[in-house]
Design goal:
The protein contains 11 helices and 8 strands. It has helices at 2-6, 8-73, 76-88, 100-108, 119-130, 151-169, 207-216, 263-270, 301-305, 348-351, 353-399, and strands at residues 173-177, 183-186, 225-232, 238-249, 252-260, 286-291, 326-335, 338-347. Helix 2 packs antiparallel against helix 11 and helix 3 runs antiparallel to helix 6. The radius of gyration is 39 Å and the shape is rod-shaped.
Length: 416
């Protein structure tokens, strides 16, 4: 090894390589560092823009919901429906139907704690739930239930309109509740139909009962109240949020109109209709809602994109710890008095992937240049050392008095 470094050619190759690699290394590091900083800043700005857009969209969505609820609560057909359902309730038979089919439904759905004690509630639920020919998620399609007369006549009159409202505005459910907390009507026909929010222990501390009491406490029209997400037993324990407004007649409260907010609609807003890639969020980016308690108020991308998990929801659970470093932007959203935050994030590795590709490109260029430098140094070193060796040989011959020695002249440089 020492002998090799004594060679002029090897020293020239080493010098070329050292200077070339040092130059490429410094230049590559500077380029990579500048590119990484610029790309990180661009990603953070993009996340901030997406986050701001989501904040505006979710605030506008809830403003629209509040306007829809106010419009419905003041609609004459809704007011008439509430009054007629209210007048019909006392005329239902005081003796309920056989409990067998309805109790079996509650047992099958593990909801026996919600089984109603009021016979009139059992009449309605036997007609519209237990005897309903439609799947649970489509019970609202049932229009007629003659066994629930005289309630059935009012239902046939008003249900089509309220069902259309629910479908047009994307609600999960619509409730008409009298001033005493009796759920007189629902579109979706779940276990809360006919329940007393004040006297049934299973409903007394639910999100629906809380939003009802808050709406009853309002003293002026054109006001709504929002109840944040909590587990709601009649919806199979799924997270539920409610928005409510009093129904006014001649300056007095006639009852309360409540909507149950659809999780799918919130997910649609927070995912931009699932257009993650189109918005620059790549394969790992997403935006979602967090509550004050740190729990989710909208689903994560991994929950929505995986069909085998779509039947469940991640709402009211804590976001899982990230598997990789994340770039994130978050800010509060002003939504009807609840404290939510909008988060937009993407994996740092994906965001900075172009820098990694640039680094690999620079490394390839460095390897090619290093090979070129070795070849150039090898050729140049050989050219110089060959003439020096020829000159040294002839000097030795002259020193030995061999005056026939001749030095060949090559080129026109300093060694010629």
């Amino acid at each position: 090894m020492v002998t090799w470094f004594r060679s002029y050619r090897s020293q020239l190759i080493s010098a070329f390589l050292t200077l070339g690699i040092a130059t490429m290394g410094i230049t590559g590091w500077q380029v990579s560092r500048s590119a990484s900083q610029a790309l990180r800043q661009a990603t953070e700005e993009r996340l901030a823009a997406i986050r701001q857009t989501r904040v505006r969209q979710i605030e506008r969505y809830f403003d629209d919901l509040a306007n829809h609820v106010l419009a419905l609560s003041s609609d004459e057909s809704v007011i008439s429906a509430l009054e007629e359902f209210q007048s019909t309730w006392p005329r239902l038979p005081a003796t309920g139907p056989p409990e067998g089919p309805l109790r079996e439904l509650y047992r099958r759905l593990n909801s026996e704690a919600l089984f109603p004690s009021d016979p009139r509630t059992r009449i309605l639920q036997q007609a519209y739930l237990a005897a309903n020919p439609h799947p649970a998620s489509e019970r609202g399609l049932l229009l007629e239930a003659p066994t629930a007369a005289p309630y059935d006549a009012v239902h046939r009159r008003f249900h089509p309109t309220l069902y259309r409202y629910r479908m047009a505005f994307g609600f999960w459910d619509i409730f008409l509740i009298d001033t005493q907390g009796r759920v007189l009507y629902t579109v979706a026909k779940e276990f809360d139909l006919g329940a007393s929010l004040r006297h049934d222990p299973a409903f007394a501390n639910t999100g629906l009962s809380r939003v009802f009491e808050r709406a009853r406490a309002l003293t002026e029209p054109e006001l709504t109240v929002l109840e944040d997400f909590s587990r709601y037993a009649p919806s199979a324990g799924a997270p539920a949020a409610f928005l409510a407004a009093p129904v006014w007649r001649a300056g007095e409260q006639a009852g309360v109109l409540v909507i149950q907010i659809s999780l799918d609609e919130i997910d649609r807003v927070m995912t931009g209709d699932r257009s993650w890639r189109e918005e620059g969020l790549g394969d790992t980016g997403q935006s979602y809602l967090l509550g004050r308690d740190g729990l989710l108020r909208s689903d994560l991308r991994q929950t929505i994109e995986r069909p085998d998990r779509r039947r469940s929801t991640a709402v009211l659970t804590a976001p899982p710890p990230p598997a990789a470093a994340m770039l994130r932007s978050e800010s509060p959203a002003r939504v009807a008095g609840v404290e939510w935050r909008v988060v937009a994030e993407i994996e740092e590795q994906e965001a900075l992937r172009p820098v990694s590709e640039l680094q690999r490109g620079l490394l390839l260029i460095a390897l090619i240049l290093a090979l070129a430098l070795v070849l150039i140094a090898y050729w140049l070193g050989g050219s110089i050392t060959r003439r020096l060796r020829s000159l040294a040989d002839n000097v030795q011959r002259l020193a030995g008095r061999d005056f026939r020695a001749r030095v060949a002249v090559e080129g026109r440089d300093e060694l010629a």
